[in-house]
Inverse folding.
C-alpha cells in the first residue's frame, strides 16, 4: 500500500517538479549579453509522468547569482562614462548580477485524450528584481586619438517579466512515460536596450522538445530527461539575433516514503549556432554552461487539494560567453488529489492515468 501511495502522489506532483527545476535568467551559452530565453532546469524529475486532470497552480521563488567577464559585456552596447563597447578596441570588465524572481504558473490538464495522450496548457507570469553591476576598463582608439577609461555602472529594476505559454502532451506505458511540448516567449516584460538589468528579453522565441521519465512505483526509483531547441527571433530594439540554443534538463530521485523524495538535478545548455544581425558587434560566438545539484521534495494534504514543496539548487561550471554561478528554487504546487483506487486495484493499474 505504501508504494501505491507513492505512485498516486507522483502523478499529482509531476508538473510541480517539472517546473520546480525552472528557468535561470542567466546561465548557459552566448546570447545577447549572455541572457537566453530558456531557463536551464525548467524540467526536472517526473517531467513526463501524466498528471491529475483539472486546474493546478505552481508558485516559485527563484534566486540566481552569476558573474561574467568582458566577452559577455561585448555582446551589448553598454556605456561606461560616455564610452560604448562598440567604440573600444578591447575591454577588461566584470559583470555581476543578482536575480530574484517570483513566478506564478496556472495550468489546466484535460481529461479527454488527445492523440492517445494527456494534454495540458499553462501560462507563466513573472515578477522580479534584477540588480546588475559592470566594472571595467575600456581602451582603444577613436579616430586618431587613443583613450582609456575605467568606471563602473549599476542598474536595478523591479518589474514584471515576459509571458511564457506552454502546451504539452504526455503518454504512459507502464514504468515508461513520454512527453512532447512547445512553448515560447511573449515579450511583454520590462525591457530597455540601454539598461544592464531587464526582466524581459525584448524579442519573440519558439521552443520545442521531447522527454522521457522512468518511474517504478514498486521501488520508488525515478529518472527523467527532457531535451529541446530554442529559435530566437531578432531583437527589434538592437537588431541582434541570438543563435539556436540546445538544452537538456535531467533529474533523478528516490522516494523514501509516499511523502518524501530526495535526488539530484542538472542541465546542459549549449548554443549550437552563432549570434547574428547588424547589432552583433562581436561575431558569432556561442555560449555554454552546465549545472548540477541536489533536490528534496515533500508531499502533504492541503484541504481538498494536495500540496507539494520542493527545494533544489544548481552550481554551474564549464561556462563560456555567458554569466554563470549558482541558483536556487523553492517551489509550491497545489493540485487536485488523486482518487483513491479500490482495494482490489493492482499497483500497476493505480500508478497513473493518461
Amino acid at each position: 500500500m505504501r508504494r501505491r501511495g507513492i505512485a498516486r502522489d507522483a502523478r499529482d506532483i509531476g508538473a510541480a517538479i517539472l517546473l520546480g527545476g525552472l528557468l535561470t535568467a542567466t546561465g548557459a551559452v552566448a546570447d545577447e549579453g549572455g541572457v537566453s530565453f530558456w531557463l536551464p532546469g525548467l524540467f526536472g524529475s517526473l517531467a513526463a509522468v501524466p498528471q491529475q486532470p483539472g486546474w493546478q497552480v505552481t508558485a516559485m521563488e527563484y534566486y540566481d547569482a552569476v558573474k561574467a567577464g568582458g566577452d559577455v559585456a561585448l555582446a551589448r552596447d553598454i556605456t561606461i562614462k560616455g564610452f560604448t563597447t562598440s567604440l573600444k578596441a578591447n575591454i577588461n570588465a566584470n559583470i555581476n548580477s543578482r536575480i530574484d524572481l517570483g513566478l506564478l504558473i496556472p495550468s489546466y490538464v484535460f481529461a479527454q485524450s488527445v492523440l492517445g495522450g494527456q494534454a495540458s496548457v499553462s501560462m507563466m507570469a513573472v515578477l522580479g528584481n534584477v540588480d546588475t553591476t559592470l566594472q571595467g576598463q575600456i581602451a582603444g582608439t577613436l579616430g586618431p586619438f587613443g583613450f582609456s577609461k575605467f568606471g563602473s555602472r549599476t542598474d536595478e529594476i523591479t518589474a514584471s517579466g515576459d509571458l511564457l505559454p506552454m502546451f504539452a502532451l504526455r503518454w504512459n506505458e507502464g514504468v515508461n512515460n513520454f512527453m512532447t511540448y512547445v512553448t515560447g516567449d511573449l515579450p511583454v516584460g520590462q525591457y530597455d536596450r540601454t539598461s544592464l538589468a531587464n526582466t524581459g528579453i525584448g524579442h519573440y522565441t519558439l521552443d520545442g522538445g521531447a522527454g522521457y521519465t522512468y518511474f517504478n512505483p514498486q521501488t520508488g526509483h525515478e529518472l527523467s530527461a527532457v531535451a529541446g531547441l530554442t529559435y530566437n527571433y531578432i531583437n527589434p530594439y538592437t537588431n541582434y539575433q541570438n543563435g539556436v540554443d540546445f538544452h537538456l534538463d535531467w533529474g533523478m530521485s528516490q522516494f523514501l516514503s509516499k511523502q518524501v523524495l530526495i535526488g539530484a538535478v542538472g542541465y546542459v545548455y549549449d548554443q549550437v549556432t552563432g549570434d547574428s544581425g547588424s547589432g552583433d558587434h562581436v561575431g558569432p560566438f556561442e555560449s555554454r554552461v552546465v549545472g548540477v545539484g541536489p533536490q528534496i521534495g515533500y508531499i502533504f494534504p492541503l484541504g481538498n487539494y494536495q500540496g507539494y514543496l520542493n527545494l533544489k539548487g544548481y552550481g554551474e561550471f564549464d561556462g563560456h560567453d555567458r554569466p554563470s554561478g549558482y541558483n536556487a528554487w523553492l517551489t509550491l504546487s497545489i493540485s487536485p488529489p488523486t482518487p483513491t483506487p479500490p482495494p482490489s486495484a493492482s499497483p500497476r493499474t493505480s500508478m497513473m492515468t493518461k
